[in-house]
Amino acid sequence: MKPTKNLSCRHAFTQTLTEEAVRDNRVYAVTTDARGSVTLNDYANQLPDQFIELGIAEQNAAGVSAGLGLSGKNAFLCGPACFYSARNVEQIKNDIAYSNANVKIIGVSGGVSYGALGSTHHSLHDIALYRSIPNISIILPADFEETVLATRYLVQMDGPVYMRLGRSPVPDVYDGNTRQFIFGKANILKDGSDCTIVATGETVAYAVQAAELLTEKGFNTAVLDVHTIKPLDKETILAYAEKTKCMITVEEHSIYGGLGGAVSELLASHRPTPMRIIGFQDEFLPAGTSQELFSYAGITSEHIAKQTIDIIEKSK
Amino acid sequence: MSSHIQIDTIHNISKDIRIKLLHMIYNAKSGHTGGSLSCVDILATLYFRILRYDSAHPDDPNRDRFILSKGHSVEAYYATLAEAGFLSDEELHSYGVFNTRLFGHPTIKIPGIEAASGALGHGLSIGLGMAIAAMRDNRESRVYVLMGDGEQAEGSIWEAAMAASHYHVSNLVAIIDNNKLQISGNVDDVMRISCLKKRWSAFGWNVIEVDGNNIQELIKTFEELQRNQEEPTLIIAHTIKGKGVSFMENNPAWHHKVPTEEELKTAISELESV
Questions:
Q1: Cβ of B126 and A66 within 8 Å?
Q2: Smallest CA–CA separation between A99 and chain B, in Å?
Q3: 3-class state of residue A253 by DSSP
């Protein structure tokens, strides 16, 4: 699939954050030698008084961000998702979440964005990790437009959030004159009756394409964009479980503890429903580009469509 | 703060804090006795002579901030906050009772507590963020962070030390409660941290050594810092673990030992007789 804009979600984030920070001097961006990776160079040049470089020291950066958040600032701690979901987790749990500091953790180049750089640079555990820490929300926007809207939302809300963004441009799911971003509320991208494909982040585009393939084959599949994984939109997911009787989740994450985990925990307690979890298996990955690794994990429109047909037929 | 509380009064407050914290630990049957007693004089000096705050308005943006990075000395902290008007003496009795606000490490549930602590090596970074925020807002606020000596083994402290001097965060004051003991024994036997002065100086800090159980010396040191500094300051406060109770002093067994009724009585009579 080709991106329709040549800019990634991290560009959407930094462009929006810069616009908002010009208007709101409580906004601070904090980073750890990652201003290039995050695309924060323009922000840093334009707003040096609202920017703090802390060098390659993620623990300190999380603690400093907490101190800023507890002093009335709206701190955006920006750096690679792989490090911001492992190296400084204790600071995130205690200093940010437990102390209720107004800090937005922006994990860029999330999932397998870094491809062949290997598992040190992958974050396929971040959703599971953040889901298990109280008082912190999780957002994975699907495309450029949704990232813009989510970033505007983060600027005006108060409290700890983790938002994961990918490294490369992604296909547009939304068209520019988009709907609003409603925190905690899934977007129903397509209604349907045979099965529901529930996706998050950059996999949403593949879910939409899979539904188109399924339509050609005579199946009527619903598609949900769960941009907020925590708090989870239980109402919409349960309603679609009831309506379509089976579900497929798709995510750029371990099959353990991510979106699939969240949905299956919900369904097991409230409405047991046949489902499949498409994501990365429990292994360190072979070398490959992010696209090659998506194919390896079965995050392709063809594989999602095939799995959907399989579960529909087995659920009959 | 009451800027000119006399030394004798602060001595009495220190004594009251020690008695209160021993009662809390005795009642709860849990607590960090030795490390609470060692830092009482530092807390009393800060809260009754140095820090600018108003316990009726704990969120005043112009207040000075204090972070107890060695969060396990929480009994001394709660007793100090009670003396300073943030907590009632009555509430101190709830320590150790189910569902009390007074956890065994500081939390933001208590007015006057700026951040949760308890996992070591966190407080200096939080304080640094607060100090940078105050600097950039051109506020007069200063930030004081009290660390342990065993805590110096935490790598994150040195990340914060580096960044504080890089940005010349002169309104940040770190204090080490250098009581020379940690849970497993002598700090230098567990992990050698000697030459603290050299280490911190090498990181670009203004370093001062002081007798951390001498209130007069503490006042002089903190008050001299009120003048313009160009760099962050570290105060190495040499203290005695278990200070004020003869059989607890310099005895690692009292790191988190709870006194018996008899020991409590003896301890309090020793403190009251001074």
A1: yes
A2: 5
A3: strand
